[in-house]
Specification:
2 helices, 25% helix, 4 strands, alpha+beta
Length: 81
């Protein structure tokens, strides 16, 4: 059986002082598999994974983007491995 789970990467732009708080909030979202601090205009890269893309879309729209301290996001959907 092939793995049919969906994966989305989200780049997060935020103030440096908000990074720790955002990382802690991301840990509370069930579909978040990894969150990495990076340097540049995008401060955090998040990997989300779930059985379907709709679940990920809802998590990004209603949980992740509503977090205090997030200024902007960019979502990248993985289509093939």
């Amino acid at each position: 059986m092939t793995n049919t789970s969906s994966i989305v990467f989200v780049l997060i732009m935020c103030a440096h002082k908000s990074m720790t708080n955002i990382i802690n909030q991301l840990k509370e979202i069930d579909v978040v598999k990894e969150a990495t601090l990076v340097d540049g205009p995008w401060r955090i890269i998040v990997k989300l994974q779930a059985d379907n893309l709709d679940h990920l879309r809802d998590a990004v729209q209603w949980k992740l983007r509503k977090m205090e301290g997030i200024e902007s996001t960019l979502s990248l959907v993985e289509y093939m491995k």
